[in-house]
Specification:
Layout lengths: L10 H32 L7 H16 L6 H19 L5
Length: about 100
């Protein structure tokens, strides 16, 4: 049952829920793009330790990306996180 169709919930709470989902979507995409931009220099040899920061950003972005209905932010963060994790494994950053 959609939250907007329920008559037992105050209309302001419905508006608040819709706004929070939109903000979570925005922050998830923003964090994913920042993490992707941070991953570019970490692909250069001797700068691979930046991947740890990228992974932390991806985890935060994944947390924000779980709540909205559109999962574009979640997808971006998972893709960037997987690439960063593979780079860490190949560069012996994860033992």
């Amino acid at each position: 049952m959609a939250l907007e169709n329920c008559s037992c919930i105050h209309p302001l709470l419905v508006v608040f829920a819709v706004v929070m989902k939109a903000l979570c979507q925005f922050f998830s995409v923003l964090i994913g793009l920042v993490a992707a931009l941070g991953m570019v220099p970490s692909l250069i040899p001797f700068l691979g330790a930046l991947n740890w920061l990228v992974l932390v950003l991806c985890v935060v972005g994944i947390i924000f990306g779980v709540f909205p209905e559109r999962k574009i932010g979640l997808t971006i963060n998972i893709a960037v996180g997987v690439v960063a994790l593979v780079r860490l494994i190949l560069g012996s950053g994860v033992v």
